[in-house]
Amino acid sequence: xxxxxxxVSGWAQLFGLVSFEIFGQFxxxxxxxxxxxxxxxxxxxxxxxLQPAAVLPTE
Length: 59
What we know:
This protein is 61% helix and 0% strand.
């Protein structure tokens, strides 16, 4: 059961993170949104036992 709880919690947090970005809730609050999302998604991945992929360089 703890695994299911961790996955549901991670899904809810990811859903909220994406929703906040789509609907502009981070405007004038988080200026480096790309870096913020990478850090938050990595933390969620580790929370459910996944290893985040290496960050690819941007062009």
